[in-house]
Amino acid sequence: MLNKFSFSQREKILDHSRTLGVAERGIEYIANALDAPSRESSGGGLRSFSVNYASAVAGVAFQVDSATVELKYLLRALIGRDSLLPINQPGRIHVRGLSPNGRRTRFPYTPDFVDIELKRVIVVECKTESQLIELAKTRRNDYVRCREGYRFLPGEDYFNNLGMEFRVFCDREISQVELANLMLVCPQQGLLQREEIETDPLLLQARSLVERRPRTLSALRKKLGSEVEHVLINALAHRCLFGTMGSTKFTDADRFTFYPSETNARNADRKELSRIATEQIRRQEKWSNSAASITAADHRSAIRRIARIADIESGSRKPNSNDRRIIATYQQKIQEGREPEFAAATKYELSGNRGCRFEDQTELLETFHAQHIAIPNPKSIRETYGLVSAEIEEKGMHPVSYETFRKFVNAKDPGATAQKQSGSRGLHAHAPISDIETARPEALTAGQVVHVDSSPEDCRSFAKIAGLISLERPSFAIAVCERTEHILGFAVAFGAASAFLLSLLLRDIVRRWGFYPQFVVNDGGPEHRSNMWRRALAWNRCSIINRPTGAPRAGQCVESVIRAINYGVPRKLAGSTRNDEARRRSSNQYKSRSTAVHDFETVHDLIAEDFRSLHDTSPKAFAHNSPRDWFLAERALRPVGLPAQISEPMTLIETSVPINVRKMDMDVTRGLRVGLRNYSSLDLIDAVREHKTFDQVRLDPEDPSTIYVQFKSGWVTADSHDADELRGLSPIERLVEGMHARQRWDENQDVRTKNQVKLNTKIDQLDARARALSKSERSPRANETSRTASAGSDIFTRLESGTSKRFKTNG
């Protein structure tokens, strides 16, 4: 498949690297990256979208810091012809470089990728263009600008000695259009075998048409039918056909063109990109020579100047020498075809600084800027300027104008000020909208990117099953398609959002639509960092995009649905949101549970009713009656993602909740004890006799009578002793019983952990006492006192007093 390496082919990768001339130290570096790869990236910054990309070709889930930088290189390497296997975050090294002062330094460094290619092994460092420009200024001895791009000299020196090449990848090398196409095409790798795709009748017909002459997507769709789109996406993923992915979005059917060879497609991309660049330059020149390019202050001055010129031309005002010069310049620009406002503008702001030197006061302004954003009493710009003026006048300097100081403050990063005053949420609330050239591209088809989020309900509910009562707050999770804003699934459970809730959500999506999306976007909460969630998605070729914490604007499509449900549901639950006797709200974890007046089934039905009411409303486009119609229409054209059925065994296993079960709870004859239930089956008993121990246990979230146990030979299913009784309950009752079973197990585990801590503490105290006694001599009076001491009923008290009796022995 694509003649790529996977991480499991360790020896082949190392042998190939040796044939390329890599030194033994380099081979050891690659081997360490394959054997114990870090894989854990830094998670990106406060504004970065980190990605866990599940690759069926490499057989791992790559973790990259940014969806717009590292992900670009990774996807191009996975689909490219030369790259055999990219290894992310290979390992830390120490390189030598020069400081800005020219002193030799040694510092740790971790490259982003080691790319094993056909003819070379290349180490890659990924940066944005703005970062490289700044680094070339601040670290000019390490980062150097050249004709081909940028160079990182310490990295080149280190890896060239190992027989590898080194390069710096800039995000501008791959456009946002190409990234959007790669995010659509690359996840389709590995879903089908190359032989199945090459022998597809529709692809054979499309290939014969493209070999005659290049064809657009709309032409092929008109000739072969709408179902050819999905076949063409798979053909692009497996390099059976090539298209203008670098310059045209796949959804632009009238312009996206297919070619039989990659060379022809690349040449077409270059021509199209050159045409787009020329058009942008022409638009920029037109805009810069129009009135729209001038500032508001210059525009007001231009209007006054035009009125003055009109008065002079009408004879109502007598011109002076300066007016004659202005009128001559104005008439010359009008003859050149400029707009009147642009011809009369002075562009005062671009004419440079006036008055005292601004550089002389920069340090003082920086000090007062820190006071301007200080906590807890931040000052306004006007108040801070008054302090600045007084301080500068005391130093004998002429202060800058208020307008200059205002520009100085506003030129500062507004995100830094907002973050210091309001945290990460304040940072993203004040952050400007990202440039289209640096933002994450939108999804190109329905079901490609799905946003997932959860929220607790503002009420407490109760449920009574088999004598157990729960009074926790219910939580719900929602999945929304990014492109159509169609709600794909929902789930409701007790307590805070957890892996149990997300497993119900995954099953609901698969049950309703029969597929896993290519990408899932979440906010990186504790439930989204669970191993069950990440492994279940990676197993089903679903990648995770972690949006920045505290940035609800990045997930607006799902946040709006949650806000609507949270606004509507509590209004229908009379008395559930009232404060308790201590005036604590229901959102307070310490609120009295006596405020629970509605059962879980009532709350579940109300949330489900709101879900159904929002399911087919709020059309996003005039061309479609509802988001559902839009979603179904695009899924019929491009059914991307991994197909799945809820009845498949691995789907049930991967969407089950892992539970911690002690090895001693496994019995060869009775099966496995989980909480208050015994689970057994013939397959489980046979597996226990063969392997003696198990790897992990998972509980079915919808049917607590079933567990899945993994052994070295595979998975087996076991049923509880009361399976018939549990399966006779309603689906809601089984769901509640499953949540109670997980809750009881967690409570029992907490009790065992606390008792074990007490036992360990007592043993440590006894050990310390014994060591203290061994160092000192025991006097007869001390021994007599210890014998006459009263012995309590506690075994530790008797051990401390020395009055515990020994059992009789035959000796």
Q: Sheet bearing the most strands, described?
A: 7 strands, mixed
Give the termini distance in whole angstroms: 74 Å
Radius of gyration: 35 Å
Q: Helix/strand/pairing class, anyone?
A: alpha+beta
Unreliable stretches? 41-46, 349-357, 781-793, 803-811
Shape: globular
Number of helices: 29
Helix content: 40-55%
Strand order of the largest sheet: 2-1-21-20-14-17-18
**Beta-strand content:** 15-25%
- Tell how many strands the DSSP assignment holds: 30
Mean pLDDT: 78
Fold and architecture overview:
Residues 41-46, 349-357, 781-793 and 803-811 have low confidence and may be disordered. The chain has 29 helices and 30 strands. Helix 15 runs antiparallel to helix 16. The chain is globular and about 110 Å long. The chain is an alpha+beta fold. Strand 8 (143-145) and strand 9 (150-152) form a beta hairpin. The strands form eight sheets. A seven-stranded mixed β-sheet has the order 2-1-21-20-14-17-18, sandwiched between helices.
Q: What descriptors fit this protein?
A:
811 residues, disordered C terminus, 44% helix, 7-stranded mixed β-sheet, alpha+beta, globular, 17% strand, single chain
